[in-house]
């Protein structure tokens, strides 16, 4: 009877250890998945900045004779290049050779990077829109915001409205990202403590 009880106890402890390992693996996979997704979005956005820069340069070229339009477009292009340079260090990590502590560090570094440059990203996108919109309005709708005061007021009212919307939504998006990454860091910290014991 004692041997049977001892054997069952060992089997139960073995199952508990396996279940704990399975739960930890699921948490690690979830953390990796969230991190990969958010990092992928940032990398995609970084690469799009080069495309947006090219669009600005092209529009500036089409309005080369009108400096009031071409110079702002070139400033928008420079801002997009600056955005690309800010995020050039972002790259997908090699998860195969990464332990829990390294993953936690990478997530933390990405959180810091996002918090530091997020406000610049929003400002750069707004600047890009503001510098291109006058050219599009002139070429597509023959509206010149620089010569028609009603168009100028309407344009900057619309810009103000878009700015408020972008600031509201981008703040929520960055906060959501930060919360997801913070949760991953906490979960990984618990796993790290488990691995050390």
Task: Please give a quick description of this structure.
The chain is mainly alpha-helical. It has 4 helices and no strands.
| Topology pattern, helix = H, strand = E | HHHH
The secondary structure category is: mainly alpha
What is the mean predicted local confidence, pLDDT?
A: 81
Percent helix, as a range, is over 70%
Q: Please, what is the oligomeric state?
A: single chain
Number of domain units: 1
Number of helical segments with 4 or more residues: 4
- Beta-strand percent range: under 5%
Tell the overall outline: elongated
Largest sheet, described in full?
Answer: none
Distance between the termini: 32 Å
User: Which value, in Å, is the CA radius of gyration?
Assistant: 26 Å
- The number of E-state strands comes to 0
As residue ranges, the low-confidence spans are none
Pick out its properties:
about 85% helix, mainly alpha, 4 helices, about 200 residues
């Amino acid at each position: 009877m004692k041997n049977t009880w001892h054997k069952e106890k060992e089997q139960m402890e073995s199952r508990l250890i396996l279940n704990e390992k399975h739960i930890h693996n699921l948490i690690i996979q979830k953390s990796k998945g969230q991190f990969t997704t958010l990092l992928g979005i940032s990398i995609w956005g970084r690469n799009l900045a080069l495309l947006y820069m090219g669009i600005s340069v092209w529009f500036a070229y089409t309005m080369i004779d009108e400096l009031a339009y071409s110079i702002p477009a070139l400033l928008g292009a420079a801002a997009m290049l600056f955005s690309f340079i800010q995020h050039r260090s972002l790259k997908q990590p090699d998860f195969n050779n990464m332990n829990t502590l390294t993953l936690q560090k990478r997530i933390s570094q990405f959180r810091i990077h996002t918090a530091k440059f997020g406000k610049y990203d929003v400002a750069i996108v707004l600047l890009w829109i503001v510098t291109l919109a006058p050219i599009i309005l002139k070429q597509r709708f023959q509206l010149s915001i620089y010569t028609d005061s009603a168009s100028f007021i309407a344009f900057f009212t619309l810009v103000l409205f878009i700015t408020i919307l972008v600031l509201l939504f981008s703040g929520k998006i960055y906060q959501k990202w930060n919360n997801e990454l913070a949760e991953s860091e906490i979960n990984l910290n618990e796993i790290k403590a488990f691995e050390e014991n």
